[in-house]
Design goal:
Distance between the termini: 47 Å
Order of helices and strands: HEEEEEEEH
Number of strands: 7
Strand content: 15-25%
Bound molecules: zinc ion
Structural class: alpha+beta
Number of helices: 2
Shape: globular
Largest sheet: 3 strands, antiparallel
Length: 98
Amino acid sequence: MLPLHSELMPSGGIIKEARATVNEEALGKTMAELNFQCKKCEREFDCDVGKISFPVEEDRPRFEKEIVCPRCGILSMDEVWLTELGQTQLGAVFMSAE
Ligand SMILES: [Zn+2]
């Protein structure tokens, strides 16, 4: 029984590792990337905003990173629209944050 047991252990470890990678990827998609539209050039883009927090005292979410338009550079939240997709993504983050 012992040799069989030791053979199973490494494969168990590999499965665990693979799952962790998938989870991280899924988390990265829902936690960080939001779809915006730039008010200046009207271009839609996905932006990695890092961690998103929802301060109670503010009526808008706070992002860890800057919103960067591929054409115009760093933008404030007043210079972008959150697209329908972006709102869905943000909603998913909000639900998971609560
Ligand atoms: Zn732009």
